[in-house]
Design a protein that fits this description.
single chain, alpha/beta, Glutaconate Coenzyme A-transferase, 8-stranded mixed β-sheet, 8 helices, globular
Amino acid sequence: MIDKVVANAAEAVADIADGASLAVGGFGLCGIPVALIDALHDQGTGNLETISNNCGVDDWGLGVLLKDGRIRRTISSYVGENKEFARQFLNGELEVELTPQGTLSEKLRAGGAGIPAFYTPAGYGTQIGDGGLPQRYDGDGGVAKASEPKERREFDGRHYIMEHSVTPDFALVHAAKGDRHGNLVYHATAMNFNPPCAMAGKITIAEVEELVEPGELDPAEIHTPGIFVQRIVVTPDVEKRIEKRTVSASKEEQAARSVQTGATA
């Protein structure tokens, strides 16, 4: 039996060196591998390239690495919740390759499937396809580096651009359950970008909330087969945060608002 379980998060990320590229699962703050990110931060690794839907928030997720200047470049889709991200990008401290969300997912999936590139209509006729999208500023408001034009093709009368897949050095993912062979099950929307990230990484490290023995997971319910995963670490008590909390008003508050609205009508 191949037992892929390691003792702790620090051991799991110990060989991630300065300059490494990382695919990191999660969407917003849902399904992010917090324990692995924190362990990477604690060991001082820097000059990283990250491939992730977003870059955390100012004090959580990838945001902790970003805040300390550990990320030099990122390929992302949605980065609007991180003020430090915006500051670094506009000041020329961070290189950013903005990528349509579906394209980013397919770049990861294709990399894991051994497909070097693919054609997509997403971005055709925009700066994504035509080039010129700022990737790094010079700190004085000018563009130091812009994106290059992408190859174009026409299929059955529709226009497409070519996107290259990605195969980063490591992938960090979070799952609800895993077994010692590395098979993973994600919970609900926490699946998000975790499966394609797990596929793409040359070495994939998974933190799981619950470890089970081989054979306990229903094969039909496994989301990521163990062949894609090299290391498992158990993190049962990892903190989970909500990016934006929205709650309904209590009955008393609703009644008070109704009275107030009636009084001012």
